[in-house]
Amino acid sequence: MRTVSKTWIKLVFALFLLISHFAFGQSVELLKKALEYAKQNEHQKAIGVYEEVLKQDPKSILALQGLGLSYLSLGQYEKGLPFFNQAFKMDRKNLTTLFALARTYVLLKQYPKAHYYYKLVLDINPYHVEAYLGKARLYRENNQHHLATETYEKILEFDPYQKEALGELSHVYLDRDQKERALKTAKKFLEINPKDVDTLSNIGSVYEAQGKIKEAIQWYEKAKTIDPKNERIQAKLSLLYGATDQIDYSLVHLQKALELQEANVKDYITLGRAYGWLYRVDEAILVFEKARAMDPKNKMVLNELASLYLYKEKWDQAENLYSQVLARSPKNTIALEGMEKVKLQKKPVFTSRFNYKTFKNKRPNDPDTESFKFEYLEELEWKLNPRHALTFLYQKNHHYQNDIENNTKDYEFNQDVASLKYNVSLSDPLLFSFRGDYNHFDNQGSNTYTIPEGDIDHFSAFSYLSFTKGAFYNFLAWKRGLLLRLLSSPNRLAEHPYYDYSNTLGLNMTPNLETIFYYAYTDYKLLKDQHDVESSLTYRLPFFKQVKLGYSFEYLSEPIERIHTASFRIQEDFFKHLLFDLLYEFKRNDNDTDQGVTHNNNVKGRLSFPLYQKLMFHFEGRWEFENGKDHDKNQEYRTYITLPFGMF
């Protein structure tokens, strides 16, 4: 039920002022003084003045009514009731007293008595709208929807556009599951006042009850346009956008709602979690830090903040926050699990993987080939502290290719790789990484490509410096690699070292729109130099965030290629375990060497799921179909299993 209506109290005070013009004596000035206190919500002072009036005139109905209303305003309903009863004994037909008694009994939840006094009001004034509204609300409170409907409709008989009756009747129709009548009733009021915020919101709530969330959003957006500072509308839009997985828009409205009201810790927790769902971790941390400033001992805030710092690999800060929780609540499950994760981050991690790849190549003018690659990998990662990490890696690969048509083996060789990687966080937005690889290649078999110099020993390296600040990021990279070329005449495996320098700039222009610019210069030493320039736009659908649309243009030199690419990507996580990823690309390649245009349809798919606990099975496929000057057909399949054997 509603509390005391401020509008109703103001009307009663206005009535007191009107009556006071017709009163005589010293009490008039005191009544005016009491009313001024009441207007300023200084009800305790008003009570003192009313009591002084009663000392001068014990039969002053105005003073009795004023005392009752003042106690109602202070929430002391039982103290106010005796004064209304005294006024009623003096004048049993005073509408103000009767209505005040009805409202007081409503607040005291003595509904039969409230009904009685509403009836007395209506016996005297059959057109008393507030009394009808009071009765209708009592019927709604008691789930007597049919009687509530009749009462609201009674009001509309003599005032067809009574705002509160139309609005509340639409909700009664909703309670009775008469949604179309609810909409019709709410829209009726818009005929006379199309910019009424409450009615627009009511229509939105009706559509929400029907499960038509998009329509509900449209009506609440109309209401927001008229009243952008309405915190209730902003909060409702936040919930509705969240229900449609439009988390970005949900965040905008939630943040606006918090700005318009005095935000509490619970509000900040909601906002922080929303940022976390969007992987906007830095913003989530700022929000939870505000919540911690408001309530430094809040366990939920401390745990949430610790998990975010742990995500950013700042385990020292995470450990401190979890420790604060456990100091007050030693059995807190979330904090205990968090401390275990901190311990795991401090320890070296050993991982073993076995990958199997196969690649089929169908070319119009060449024999069909099928290549295979077996990979066995052992990796040890050791995080020295939150800023420094070392990774040791050993990988053994076995490569061979078969000529399917001639049933011969084209080549076969082994590759051993030993790597050392070092990562250091120079500052919060700045990360430096260096990786050095020692590669050893050895030839296998008599029917294969030969290596003129015998086995190949080669050192390769990769280094990058990344900077991230808000929506902007920059990625500078350098690489020294080895290009292995399979020459058919003479039959040999040729090696060509190369150096690659690249810079990637990215900007999240909106929560759903990202733009990337990429430039790379590759020096193949004795072969050629190549420049690669690419710019792209990626757009995530706001109503279906698993889907991304993209466009990119790439220019390459040596040979000159101009590539336009349109892409469609869908990623979905079924049942929290089955990961599905599908990418379709359509490319238009204008190649000066081929002197023509080639259209390329490229489909890539990935499926991952656990076989047992952390034993993961992965399948990846790529299907490429081309038409035009250089029309190839390529297929590639990869199946592999990953198994972390454990942690020291």
Topology:
Layout: H1 6-20, H2 27-39, H3 43-56, H4 61-73, H5 77-90, H6 95-107, H7 111-124, H8 129-141, H9 145-158, H10 163-175, H11 179-190, H12 197-209, H13 213-226, H14 231-243, H15 247-260, H16 265-277, H17 281-294, H18 299-311, H19 315-328, H20 333-346, E1 349-362, E2 369-385, E3 388-403, E4 408-425, E5 430-443, E6 456-469, E7 472-488, E8 491-508, E9 513-523, E10 529-540, E11 547-556, E12 561-574, E13 578-591, E14 596-612, E15 615-628, E16 633-647
Antiparallel strand pairs: 1-2, 1-16, 2-3, 3-4, 4-5, 5-6, 6-7, 7-8, 8-9, 9-10, 10-11, 11-12, 12-13, 13-14, 14-15, 15-16
Provide a descriptive summary of the structure in words:
This protein has 20 helices and 16 strands. The chain has helices at residues 6-20, 27-39, 43-56, 61-73, 77-90, 95-107, 111-124, 129-141, 145-158, 163-175, 179-190, 197-209, 213-226, 231-243, 247-260, 265-277, 281-294, 299-311, 315-328, 333-346, and strands at 349-362, 369-385, 388-403, 408-425, 430-443, 456-469, 472-488, 491-508, 513-523, 529-540, 547-556, 561-574, 578-591, 596-612, 615-628, 633-647. Strands 1-2-3-4-5-6-7-8-9-10-11-12-13-14-15-16 form a 16-stranded antiparallel β-barrel. α2 (27-39) runs parallel beside α4 (61-73), α5 packs antiparallel against α6 (95-107) and α15 packs antiparallel against α16. The mean pLDDT is 81.
